[in-house]
Amino acid sequence: MIGILLNDHAYEQDIRELLMAFFPGRDFVYEELPDLELCLVGRLNENRDQFRMQMIFRGEHSTLIWGDSPAEQWEMDHFDEPVFLDYDNRAEAKNKIKRRLYAILKELTGRSLPWGSLTGIRPAKIALSCLKDGMEEKEIFDFMKANYFASDEKIRLCVEIAMRERELLGRVKELEAKTSQHPANEHGYSLYVGIPFCPTTCLYCSFTSYPIEKWQGRLEEYRKALFLELDYVAETAGKYPSSVYVGGGTPTSLPAEELERLMKKLTDVFDCSGALEFTVEAGRPDSITREKLQILKKYGVTRISINPQTMNQPTLDRIGRRHTVEQVQEQFLLARDLGFDNINMDLIVGLPEEEEQDLFHTMEAVKALAPDSLTIHSLAVKRAARLNTRREDYKNCKIMNTQEMIQMTARYAREMGLEPYYLYRQKNMAGNFENVGYARPGKACIYNILMMEEQQTVIGCGAGTTTKRVIPEENRIERAETVKNVEQYMERIDEMIARKKRLFQGEQP
Ligand code: SF4
Fold it and tell me: Which CATH number applies to 180-504?
């Protein structure tokens, strides 16, 4: 257990995140307890222009904190050199504090982190904004090195991705210029449609997802609510989204006739054929049929995902996917046969009990299928996932993710002719690595970039979706969410639409 004792809490989250990166899996508390193994004490001075930190650990210094002189009464000269800062300049103060803390933790543990002091989920956004400011590749590299202490490899990856993103975003801007006549859609937007149903729930899942069987009788109700939202969006933001992404859940877990109704509605209400891409996640092979793929083709879907996560059957069984490796291969080949020329596959590194040779086997099997894009995730165990809520049941499961494993996936992706094009990090990731999307030239998922780099408004419809309104001239993003609970979503659909309305009108959602 690690203690964090601060006399001001403005940067508590940033401090905790960096501590978590150095000490994954530990519990953090905010009080002086006798069984703390380690404690960070941070003090802001009265003038709010100096912040001092010290890590205290059990042993020779323990009496300083757990003896006669509690942390609250610490003399300031026990602390490290102060960080001089303008405490209320959030971006600057945060980075200064994290840089100092990183140096302290590096010295304490003798370790450095691949991402240095960066704990945010969008490191490529930093490189992208440097590019926009006109910085050259080398300048960006030096800037990221000096400011965040990230490894050369990670910075190079960020810069490469940012350069690719810039090129793809240029295409979005061109389309926006053609389609943004609507007042609410001045800068263009992308559409996300959430279908919160799956064949079964995966062990690590934290998305809005319900087993489809239980909802078979109420799909019509869901559809009606969703269609009201879609109508509202088309009316308010215009019928020309830059990209359309149908995800969830697993949209193809809908019965064929429901899937067809959804596709028809989308193509009736929006100009999907004018969008830069029209993606439908057919993520679970056990949800795919020839008929459903034909429906997607008929309505002009340009990109689908068939996600194995792993090509090892014992792991698939362990994580509750209830489909076979053969099904992945069969459905992939079927989709190819039917003319899908942009198929993505998602994989997860760090699944329970998987080791390097399991990942090697997965990469070989995926390479044989030659997908057009590959998204490599590092397992992130979120609070709502069964892997977390039933921690006791899985406490003996080995979760392994190493630099070598991540490098293996990158090497395979390159061998398959795929280039990195987007990247994000998550909290609680095994190994504190990153998720990277790789694609053949021309096959990158533009929606992923827009969503991750927050470069365009994304309007989410369906239960558990988020609408992010990007206001570039104010460098600001406003959000409105729909409820995750499907029952509540259907009952409160008017309220969900009203939230969007307030957002578009610039009011508090
Ligand atoms: S397929 Fe995806 S959304 Fe569905 S249960 Fe598994 S992880 Fe969750």
Answer: 3.80.30.20
